[in-house]
Design goal:
Order of helices and strands: EEEHEHEEEHEHEHEHHEEEHHH
Shape: globular
CATH architecture: 3-Layer(aba) Sandwich
Pathway: Carbohydrate metabolism; D-ribose degradation; D-ribose 5-phosphate from beta-D-ribopyranose: step 2/2
Cofactor: Mg(2+)
GO biological process, one term: D-ribose catabolic process
Bound molecules: adenosine-5'-diphosphate
CATH topology: UDP-N-acetylmuramoyl-L-alanine:D-glutamate ligase
Enzyme class: transferase
Pfam family, one: PfkB
Distance between the termini: 29 Å
Oligomer: single chain
CATH superfamily: Ribokinase
Length: 295
């Protein structure tokens, strides 16, 4: 069982030749609404990969919230503790220009209402083999959940995004820290992701720094660094590659696989995801991951 305490957003994406200057209006190409948020993305990735997943979070009493709930449910995720609150569902307002650069305004909305653990949250965490956390909910509840999971012996996987300097006390309760290279450098102030990984491994039991097309590096307690190569594939869209990686990593942990096998499955799943558009639409099923690995 995997519990995810995290964000659910609707991404409102416009494509345009160039983003408007202040006070200016431009005509764009296209508009799309895409369910996202790191919490919901990781929950979906884990469920597709065969995990038995409970999602803990909040949406508003609105169409976006209902669409997110339906999407999670359609993949068999338990949404019994997805609260409906008196704020709008979280949104990310994303402008992508023709060069691929983007600018984003995130309105946390309902996600900001998840401020403390409830008894049902605690029950779901206790029942889990692994708890997935990110930093898109209020930091206090993330810290409370990590401390609670630690106290009841449930392993915690933290994606430190969006990156902010974190208290050592939070990192000590995390079993697996999974930053991408930028996040690893922001967390430590190091200017090299490998150096950042080594520094983080002194504060946290196991660290995986993901390096995009360069793969990932795993630093476990006292073991030599393990390189996790990326699979060479044709890239279409890297959205949610990291979330796919973490969701599948959690399934491996819950099933008791060794780090090496777990990370290989995570790399395979994210290689599949970068060959497809979008977040939820790009995450592979367990069968697809098995098939890819047996090529
Ligand atoms: P994030 O999406 O959080 O920035 P990364 O870009 O580091 O995360 O990607 C996470 C993982 O996805 C990598 O460790 C790698 O296994 C896989 N991946 C990312 N980009 C590619 C790529 N271009 N080709 C193959 N695998 C990739």
């Amino acid at each position: 069982r995997i519990a995810v305490l995290g964000s659910a957003n609707m991404d409102l994406v416009v494509t345009t030749q160039r983003a408007p200057e202040r006070g200016e209006t431009v005509t764009g190409h296209e508009f799309r609404t895409v369910p996202g948020g790191k919490g919901a993305n990781q929950a979906l990735a884990a469920a597709r990969a065969g995990g038995d997943v409970t999602f803990l979070g909040a949406v508003g009493d609105d169409d976006f919230g209902r669409r997110i709930r339906d999407l999670l449910e359609a993949d068999g995720i338990d949404v019994g503790e997805l609260a409906v609150v008196a704020e709008t569902t979280g949104t990310a307002h994303i402008t992508v220009d023709d060069t691929g650069d983007n600018s984003i305004v995130v309105v946390p909305g309902a996600n900001g209402c998840v401020t403390a653990l409830t008894d049902p949250h605690r029950a779901a965490i206790r029942a889990a083999d692994a708890l997935l956390l990110q930093l898109e909910l209020p930091l206090l509840v993330v810290a409370e959940a990590a401390a609670y999971a630690h106290s009841v012996g449930v392993r915690t996987v933290l994606t430190p995004a969006p990156a902010i300097p974190l208290a050592g006390s939070l990192l000590e309760q995390v079993d697996f820290l999974v930053p991408n290279e930028h996040e690893a450098m922001i967390l430590t102030g190091a200017d090299d992701p490998h150096q950042a990984g080594r520094e983080l491994a002194e504060r946290c039991a196991q660290v995986v720094v993901t390096l995009g097309a360069e793969g990932a590096v795993y630093l476990g307690s006292g073991r030599p660094a393990l390189q996790v190569p990326a699979f060479p594939v044709e890239v279409l869209d890297t959205t949610a590659a990291g979330d796919t990686f973490v969701g599948v990593l959690a399934v491996g942990l819950a099933e008791g696989l060794e780090p090496e096998a777990t990370l290989r499955r995570a790399a395979a799943a994210s290689a599949l995801s970068v060959q497809r558009f979008g977040a939820s639409s790009s995450m592979p099923t367990r069968t697809e991951i098995d098939h890819f690995l047996s090529r």
